[in-house]
Amino acid sequence: MVKSLDQQLVKQIEEICASRGVRLTTQRKRVFELICTSPKASSAYELLEQLQKVEPQAKPPTVYRALDFLLDQGFIHRVESTNSYIQCCSCNAHQHYSHLLICDKCSNVIELQDDSLVALLVENAEKHGFTITNHVLETHGVCRNCRSE
Ligand SMILES: [Zn+2]
Ligand SMILES: [Zn+2]
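A: This is the predicted complex of the input protein with zinc ion.
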């Protein structure tokens, strides 16, 4: 099962790259498209397998370099607890922390952005004189689709 590709989204990231003066190579774009059309979070290995169907010479570093680029640009997120990747739900946004809901049955990931939750975390950390530079918020459970099955 493959999700249809949102051409509008691809066009949007092309424009963002152009305005930032960074190069969205064919490979980087392909990896992004693969992540977008996957119904679940994709591992680097799965992405490599997919990529090799069109680029048989692709090697793991090819995929990792493309993933690093897409992460840097804020187009995708890494799901730390499952070591996989998802598309960001707001590619054009400023850098943001997200809260991921991960379905343990189908590996689908829902990205939530709740500024009040982040503000609460910052406030709690500040009580300890602690400055947050990064955080990972990942919640595991069962998604609506899998629950209704
Ligand atoms: Zn995001
Ligand atoms: Zn599910």
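The radius of gyration is 17 Å. The chain has a mean pLDDT of 92.
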